[in-house]
Specification:
This protein is an alpha+beta fold. The chain has one domain. It is about 15% helix and about 35% strand. It contains three helices and eight strands; from the N terminus they run βββββαββαβα. Strands 1, 2, 3, 4 and 5 form a five-stranded antiparallel β-sheet that branches. Helix 1 crosses helix 3. The longest helix is centred in the C-terminal third of the chain and has 14 residues. The radius of gyration is 24 Å and the shape is globular. The chain starts with a strand and ends in a 34-residue tail after the last helix.
C-alpha cells in the first residue's frame, strides 16, 4: 500500500521551572512543513540544531522528520481536520544521554493514531496545525475518507408480543426481576 510522506521540521523547547521536583519541562513548540507530500519517498532526518538559548528556555529544531499518511488512518485525519482546532501530534521520548535529551520519534495528523500511542504509555503532545499542513491534508482526506454507512438500530420493545417469533424469549413462568 503506498504511503504518502510530508517532510516537516519539529521544534522542541525546554522551559525552565521553579519547582522542587523538576527543573525543566520539554515539549514540542511547533511543526513546520518544509516540502510537499510525495508517495513512497524516503525522507532523511537531519541533525538537531540549536535555535535559541536564554533564561526563558531553549529551542531545538529537528529537521526533516516525516509525517506518514496511510489510507487506513483516513478517519483519524478526518476527525482532526474537522475539529475546531486541528493539531499535529508529536510522540517524543526523553534520552538523558543525548543532546538535546527530548527527541521527536513520530509525527502524525491522526487523532486515532495519537490516541493509540497515548494508550500505549507514550508521551504525545499536540501543537496547532499550520495552515500549510491543513491544505495538504484536506485533499488526502477527500480522496481516502469514506464514512461508514449508518446502521438502523432495532430497539428491544418489552411490550412487543411477537418477540418470541424473532428469537427473543420472554421470562419463564413465575420469574421476577430484582
Amino acid at each position: 500500500m503506498p504511503v504518502t510522506r510530508i517532510p516537516v521540521d519539529v521544534v522542541m523547547e525546554r522551559i525552565p521551572l521553579v519547582n522542587r521536583w523538576a527543573s525543566e519541562r520539554w515539549q514540542p513548540a511547533t511543526v513546520v512543513a518544509v516540502g510537499v507530500p510525495s508517495v513512497d519517498a524516503d525522507i532523511v532526518a537531519g541533525r538537531p540544531q540549536l535555535l535559541s538559548q536564554s533564561d526563558e528556555g531553549t529551542q531545538w529544531c529537528f529537521p526533516r522528520c516525516a509525517i506518514e499518511l496511510h489510507p487506513t488512518e483516513a478517519e483519524g485525519y478526518y476527525l482532526n481536520i474537522s475539529a475546531p482546532q486541528p493539531r499535529v501530534f508529536v510522540m517524543w521520548r526523553f534520552d538523558d544521554k543525548a543532546t538535546p535529551p527530548a527527541r521527536p520519534v513520530v509525527v502524525t495528523l491522526s487523532y486515532n493514531e495519537a490516541a493509540r500511542m497515548m494508550d500505549g504509555g507514550e508521551q504525545v503532545d499536540g501543537v496547532a496545525m499550520p495552515p500549510a499542513l491543513e491544505a495538504m491534508l484536506a485533499p488526502y482526506v477527500d480522496v481516502h475518507y469514506k464514512p461508514e454507512p449508518r446502521k438502523k438500530n432495532r430497539r428491544n420493545d418489552p411490550l412487543d408480543h411477537d418477540a418470541h417469533r424473532r428469537g427473543r424469549s420472554e421470562p419463564s413462568n413465575g420469574s421476577s426481576r430484582s
